[in-house]
Amino acid sequence: MNTEPLPKQYDRAVAEKKWRDIWKKEKTFQFKNNDNTPLYIVDTPPPYVSADHLHAGHIMSYAQAEFIVRYKRMCGFNVFYPMGFDDNGLPTERFVEKKYKIDKSKITRSDFIKICLKETEIGAQTYKNLWDSLGISVDWTKTYSTIGPLATKISQWSLLDLYKKGALYRSEAPVLWCPSCKTAIAQADLEDVEDDSKINHIVCSSGSEQLTIATSRPELLPACVALYVNPNDKRYKHFIGKKAVVPLFDYEVPILSSEKVDIEFGTGLMMVCTWGDKEDLEKWQTDKLATRALIREDGRLNELGGKYQGLKIEEARAKIISDLQKNGFLIKQEDISHTLNVHERCGVPVEFILSKQWFIKIADFKDKWLEYGKKLNWYPKTRQQDYDLWVNSIKWDWCISRQRYYGVPFPVWYCKNCSEPIFASEEMLPVNPMEDKPPVSSCLKCGHKEIVPENDVMDTWATSSVTPLIIRELIADEKTKIKLFPATLRPNAFEIIRTWDFYTIVKSHYHFNNLPFRDVMISGHGLDEHGRKISKRLGNYIPSEKLLEEYGADAIRYWATGATLGQNLRFNIQEIKKGKKTTIKLWNVARLILMSLEDFKLTKVSEDLEFADCWIVQELNQSLKNVSMAFDNYSYAKAKDEIDQLFWSKFTDYYLEFIKYRLAASDNKSKKAARYTLTKIFLAILKMYAPIMPFITEELYNLIYKNSDGEKSIHLSDWPTEITIKKDKDISDFSQAITAIDEIRKYKSEKGMSLGFELEEYKLNTPIDKDKYGDFIKNATKVKILM
RNA sequence: GGGCGCAUAGCUCAGUUGGUCAGAGCGCACGGUUCACAUCCGUGAGGUCAAAGGUUCAAGUCCUUUUGCGCCCACCA
Fold this sequence. Notes:
alpha/beta, four-stranded antiparallel sheet, four-stranded mixed sheet, 22 helices, about 20% strand, elongated, RNA-binding
């Protein structure tokens, strides 16, 4: 045991840098293949590298999973903690387009991909630097990129396997389409947005009579294929089966009936188009309506739009309204507020467009998905509802093809003649059909020789949904690899339950009939101090580098520990300061300990413990139990509270004050027992704080305990166990002694005396066993005579 | 419109199965400390636990209703 005195101040910046370097050099957190140790596998969310403004929220979300990782490592698990970077897909493309002001029609596909790759490298490095500063104990020799060859290979294999199993199909159908990103998207990519709009009342004629339709989307008039009325609506009953003329466009559409038309809504007359919304789609399918597809892939009107052809949706709307008005068709406008489905990546309202896409079957197996959801361990339990709610609201199969550039290519070619898909063989993966040769020279179905590649790329989630498979491929050893699936823990924020978690479950089901992970730990978001979302636009955040520089990793991690599972956490500078104070306090306790140790040697003897010693041991044992239980349930916030209480209130405020007189005494049994207890308890406290504040605890462990505890890193040392003591001392009434000490402290405080002031005599009101605790109380409070 | 969550001291939040739960930290006031403490310690003030009703011997803690906030879903004619 080291007993060199410590410098007066803890140099946080130096210590954190030192330990980062040592951990790196010593490969402290590197995964070791080991047959005997139980595994703990973390399937960490690969961050989108397209974030150039890292803040407390980013720190929080990754620190939270890391508390658990460090705890599990100390508990003896062989922790597998790789890190990925999600660098493919739409988010990255949009980021690059925006940053470099790129018009994708004026750049080649390969040039664009080059810029994306370059940008993702920068982004990955930014994240890596942050995680490194934070002390995220990832095994940096085990990383992957979702655009890299490994992820590409696994994602492509996944599709081949799904196709074999009949879960993947290609079909031409109306799909959700983002006119801004110019690609098909999936239902999970939708977001709701409140929108103020107008309902336009438009007259049209049916024979000699006039009808009024109400629509918020008059630009879809040239796509109108039918009008619907409720069969019970007396006003319109006689129109059923007749025809109406579409104003401005002068063509006839049938008037049909449907119970689903709300008599009260609008004018009670519904205009059905190709395809304005889900209702249109449904009517089109069930009633086999004509098709008048109007919206082009770029969100402009096609030739059906007549003189409005080529206009953007909003432009066409304005122009058509104005023309309706001019011609006397528009009789009224009403303000309405409704929710629009927009694409979550760009906020642009989505359209339905007829298109040929690849789909994974999900809509018909809701029961299956719900069953898996039930089998998962959700932390917190209540977040399972988010999952269930999503599954129940699924309407369509998962569209996984994207008409974009920067993503994993489909391992598919087509026969130019009969469109038969030709899949790559497994040995060919990873494959890029746009560059690589197809596995056959002619179509197996029709014998045609012209084979063309698939140009689409996969939905970014098509790759993310196989991360549990990707991470196990990072290990070469076959025997170990097989044990790395399913993962133990999937930590992620609640908004990607319906995407990342759900899709991963779907894939895992099709591939292995198994859950992809055992536990899901759901975190919330970091908010600003007022509870608002942190955003670049609002500028309501301190950049992460600045935070780290000013307060240090331990202090910020301390704040992040405060989040309740599944709940958002407000930024709170006071908590960060409290964290910093905790590191300083730990440092000072270490100084006190080392000052009083001199040539003391830690022994295993514990028979001479006194009442106060037994008391703090008992408190420690109780806290230890609570802390372990909290960590086991992923309740790091509760764990932190518990350790704080033990350390600040019980250990420093009471115990250290209780034993100062014994430490100052000349060498004797009592001093030895105090030193023994002091060092034992402090070691346990350091270890309990270690998952939360890895730097200060590592520093002090190495300064004091390295030789006696026997590990080169506290993070590789064992989680503390209960301290056993001989049961010859009954301390069940020790709280009375504490009450008595409180009473004397209060007396001194009220009299304006210092707590160290020596009182000649004091008349105690608290009833205590004077024979038992009298001497202790007198010594601990500096009272000569206790009455 | 449907579902879920939240509402506890000035601020940020803890409060397992109903009975020392009315708490912590920060902030504030007063005092003391500088031989562990870029401080720290002690003491203190502050809340009818959103509102109303109910169940119970007993309710922040269970039930009903109301209000406010947040999230998700639906309606988009």
